[in-house]
């Protein structure tokens, strides 16, 4: 999944021949999952039509401060556009537009929007080779970068003048790649490895029957996605579930039983910085697994169970540098039981969900959790979607690594 997925990208187009490539640029941004709005300078309208960019972005395209055609002219609010944007990209950025950006000249809607923007701004210069190496252009590049803007360097090749050299706007694919790489390198969990367990475990009774539970895996999958969205490299060890994972930073390993989950977790724990146990691991398993389907000949039937290994307990015992987060699913004396688990399993944090809270626990899209840290500080949360609970958990990890 691209880091641009779900992000608002404001594309500013200025008047150079490379403006024709913005049609591809918009398509690629949309393909990456971004929401796109376009602001054009008056000069750029000669090179590409607003209709093209509007069709591709599925949004109106703005180039004037107000809509002249309408009987009661309405204002195109540059401040609103700028605040909407998570990222602004000015491509092509002509020498003229770069000069205005550097000096704060505000004579068109794009400049007014740029000056109002609080988000990261990328600019992709496009001009002839002598203009590109002119001292004024170089000073403007330096100035714009000193303001915190990021340059996407021009490429070399044939130019509109017929000359060949540096100055061509970077190809749309390269612009997208550049931005994605730059954003990924700045994600707060970049370089952090997170091990997560999710879902139920199935403990075989015979070849067709098992002991299981109602965990859907959603809580663990949502934590994996939230951590990967912030740049973490995630190993997600999941018991049987129908959920799929498409994030390229999440390595999903499917297991069936608690013993398998234990093995895989131990293979990855040493190299992990954080481990989160969201799985509902079966506490017991049949002592003997019948090799053939058990016949229903008896009126009553007893299965002898033995304790499964406690995966989280074993991770707590081996803990060195890892930040270890457990879950507690309780039905009574919730806080006290959770505190006992923190100490017994050597946890840094426990996420307590109680089956007494409506909308919390198994199978549901929501959860109501209480965080308890190892010093027994308690943070209660309202009922939220599991996606938001996952973000809360991951933000606690971000805070830890920010210090
Ligand atoms: O999957 P969903 O439908 O989205 O539901 C989410 C959930 C309710 C399963 C999840 O939020 C949750 O609470 N997971 C932990 C459930 C549980 O087994 O709690 P516990 O109190 O029995 O276990 C305490 C901790 O020890 C848990 O982190 C558990 O993963 C871990 N454990 C338990 C037993 C065992 N043999 N090995 C373990 O690692």
CATH architecture of the largest domain: 3-Layer(aba) Sandwich
How many domains?
A: 2
- How much β-strand is present in the residues? 15-25%
Nearest-integer average pLDDT:
95
Alpha-carbon Rg, integer = 28 Å
Helix content: 25-40%
Give the total of beta strands.
22
Question: What ligand species are in this complex?
Answer: ligand PMT
Which structural class best describes the helix and strand composition?
alpha/beta
The rounded distance between the terminal residues' Cα atoms is: 28 Å
According to CATH, the fold-level topology of the largest domain is Rossmann fold
In CATH terms, the superfamily of the largest domain is CoaB-like
CATH class of the largest domain: Alpha Beta
Q: How large is the count of helical segments?
A: 13
User: The biggest beta sheet, please?
Assistant: 8 strands, mixed
Low-confidence runs (pLDDT<50, min 5 residues)? none
Overall shape: it is elongated
If you had to describe this structure to a student in words, what would you say it looks like?
This protein has 403 residues and is of the alpha/beta class. The chain folds into two domains: 8-185, Flavin prenyltransferase-like (Rossmann fold); 193-401, Rossmann fold (3-Layer(aba) Sandwich), CATH 3.40.50.10300. It has helices at 22-31, 50-57, 78-84, 95-103, 109-116, 129-132, 135-146, 172-185, 218-229, 258-269, 311-318, 334-344, 386-402; strands at residues 8-13, 35-40, 61-62, 87-93, 121-125, 150-151, 155-158, 164-168, 193-198, 203-204, 210-211, 233-238, 250-254, 274-277, 284-286, 305-307, 323-330, 349-354, 366-367, 369-373, 378-380, 384-385. The strands form six sheets. Strands 13-12-9-14-17-18-20-21 form an eight-stranded mixed beta sheet, sandwiched between helices. A six-stranded parallel beta sheet has the order 3-2-1-4-5-6, with helices on both faces. α1 (22-31) links the parallel β1 and β2 (35-40). The longest helix is centred in the C-terminal third of the chain and has 17 residues, at 386-402. The chain binds ligand PMT. Ligand PMT is lined by residues 197, 199, 215-219, 258, 277-281, 283, 308, 310-312, 326-329, 341, 353, 361-363, 386.
């Amino acid at each position: 999944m691209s880091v641009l997925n779900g992000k608002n990208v404001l594309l500013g187009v200025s008047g150079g021949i490379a403006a024709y490539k913005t049609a591809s640029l918009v398509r690629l941004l949309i393909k990456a999952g971004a929401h796109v709005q376009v602001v054009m300078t008056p000069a750029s309208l000669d090179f590409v039509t607003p209709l093209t960019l509007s069709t591709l972005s599925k949004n109106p395209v703005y180039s004037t401060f107000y809509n002249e055609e309408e009987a009661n002219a309405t204002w195109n609010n540059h401040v609103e556009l700028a605040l909407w944007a998570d990222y602004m990209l000015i491509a092509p950025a002509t020498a003229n537009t770069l000069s205005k950006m550097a000096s704060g000249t505000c004579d068109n809607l794009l400049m007014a929007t740029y000056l109002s923007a609080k988000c990261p701004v990328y600019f992709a210069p496009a001009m002839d080779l002598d203009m590109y190496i002119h001292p004024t252009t170089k000073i403007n590049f330096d100035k714009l970068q000193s303001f915190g803007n990021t340059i996407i360097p021009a490429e070399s090749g044939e130019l509109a003048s017929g000359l060949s050299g540096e100055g061509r706007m970077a190809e749309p694919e390269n612009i997208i790649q550049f931005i994605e790489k730059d954003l990924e390198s700045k994600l707060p969990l970049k370089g952090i490895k997170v091990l997560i367990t999710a879902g139920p475990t199935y403990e075989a009774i015979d070849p067709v029957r098992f002991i299981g539970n109602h965990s859907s895996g959603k809580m663990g999958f949502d934590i994996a996605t939230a951590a990967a969205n912030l740049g973490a490299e995630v190993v997600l060890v999941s018991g049987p579930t129908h959920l799929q994972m498409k994030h390229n930073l999440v390595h999903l390993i499917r297991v069936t039983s608690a013993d398998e989950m234990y093995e895989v977790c131990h293979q990855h724990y040493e190299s992990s910085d954080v481990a989160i146990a969201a799985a509902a691991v079966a506490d017991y398993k049949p002592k003997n697994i019948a090799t053939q389907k058990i016949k229903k000949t008896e009126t009553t039937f007893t299965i002898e169970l033995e304790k499964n290994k406690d995966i989280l307990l074993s991770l707590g015992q081996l803990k060195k540098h890892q930040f270890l987060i457990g879950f507690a699913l309780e039905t009574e004396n919730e806080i006290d039981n959770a505190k006992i688990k923190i100490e017994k399993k050597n946890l840094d944090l426990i996420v307590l969900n109680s089956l007494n809270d409506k909308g919390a626990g198994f199978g549901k899209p929501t959860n109501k959790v209480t965080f308890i840290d190892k010093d027994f500080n308690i943070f209660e949360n309202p009922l939220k979607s599991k996606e938001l609970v996952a973000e809360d958990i991951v933000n606690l990890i971000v805070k830890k690594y920010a210090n």
